[in-house]
Structures are given as structure tokens and as C-alpha cells.
Amino acid sequence: MMQFGNVCIVGPGLIGGSIGLAIKRRNLADTVIGVGHRASSLESALKIGAIDVGHLSIDNAVKNADIVILATSVSKIIEYAEKVLPLMKSNSVLTDVGSTKSYIVQQITKNMRDDVVFVGSHPIAGSEKRGVDHASPDLFEGCICFITPFNNNKEKAVETISNLWSFLGAKVKNISPERHDELLAYVSHLPHLIASCLINVIGEDDLMYGAAGLKDTTRVASGDPELWRDIFDQNRENMIKSIDRFMAELTEFKNDLISGNNDMILNRLKKAKISRDGIFHNNPRVHDDE
Asked: Domains in the chain and their CATH numbers?
């Protein structure tokens, strides 16, 4: 099995911790180093075996790493990239797991060192829960992981990050940062927004009467609000477009109700059922996006 040398995970939480557990289970690295801002989180990561050593300071953690993975919230990725890049050794690779890509890639690559390569990535896996205590070595099995190479990427570095995700069980797809953000606006970001809005339009006293349907439909609304605010902010233009399309669909459905067009309502419901069943019934291991 391919070895990836020393791997440093900045932010060993749910995603970062799962990466560490998966790497260690498959014996893919010599050492897994964790960097966090809370000693308690690092202790938890060490306890479950997600990392071999933990640091509160990035200085010593990064300097010997062959791969540095930024597994923080999207609002912190650029900040940490600026901190770690001057410390990374020559011919090492920097990557991330951010749910947005265009802004992150633009900001990180504009001041890149010639001897370090950044390769953006995003595993479509996660949960509404946070923290390393919920990490799993199988989190990435069967999920899609987008790799967002750009013109200045070195082929070897792209291959390294692609191989890493493949060995963790993910199905790797290359995609441009722009296309990634456009796609994720519809399949991940808009659903979270809709789930939150649905909860907000139901009276608090009425929520207690909701059953499994409401619980399943709105589960992702339990995700970290600050994390999702930052995702929406970085993907603002695509979010606005997706909201417009959703509102148009709602308006058409509303007009069918007003006019009593039951045939069209039935057609809309059938279309949705066929589309959803065709994807999710044939792929039961669809993962949640963080």
C-alpha cells in the first residue's frame, strides 16, 4: 500500500478526525499529526487513535509534513493556509476539505510558493454533528470526493491527493472550482437552507407534533449555524441563483393549487419521486455533506 509520509491534519474534528482514523487503519502514513486550538480536542483525537501526536502550535507540526490537510471550517481555511505555507518543507502538498472551492482556491493560490503545491479537495461526507468524537474511519467509503486542480497544479501533486482519497474509499472526480460551487449550491447548500427555512416557518409549539417525515426532511438544519453562514457567504452568487430556481418551482406549484390543476400537481410529485428513487434507492450509501 502506498505510504504518504507524514500527514498533518489542521482541525482534527469530524472530517479531520475521520481522515486520521482512515489513514491509520489503512497504514497509509508514517505519522499523523494533529493541530488544534483546544487541548481537550487533541486529547480526544489521541484517545480514539485519529492522530499520533497533537500540537496547539502549527510551527513544529507542519515543518516535517509531506501533506498538510486543512480540515477547518471554510472561514478558517485561508487564514490557516497563510500560516502554514511559509512553514512547509519543499515538495510538500497542501490540500483542504472545504465545502466551497472558488474563493478558497483563488485566495490560496495567489501567493503560493514555487516549491509547494496546493490541490483543493472536498469529500461529500459529513454529518450535522461536529467533533472528533463522531469521527469514523469508514466515513469516506463510497462517497464522492471532488478534486479541483487548476492550471498551475503539478500533475504529481494532484495524483498524490487523488490517490490519498481513493485509498480512503472515496470516488475521486476532477472538477473546476467554479463548477464545484455551482453544483454544490443545488445538491448541498440549498437543501440546508430549505431545511432551516422549513423549521423557521413552523410555529415552535407546533414542532412537537412533527413525526419522522419532518425530522428526516429537516435533520441537516441541526448543523453548525456559523459554519453554514460562512458557506453561504462564500458561495453567495450561486446560492442566489439556486434560491431563484427554487422559488420559481414553489410559485408554479402554488399556482397549480390555486387553479386546482391536480393533474399538474400529480405530474410534479411523480417527477420528483422518479428522480429521487432513481438515485438514492440505487445508492443507499449516500453521505451527508458538512
From this structure: 6-176 (3.40.50.720), 180-281 (1.10.3660.10)
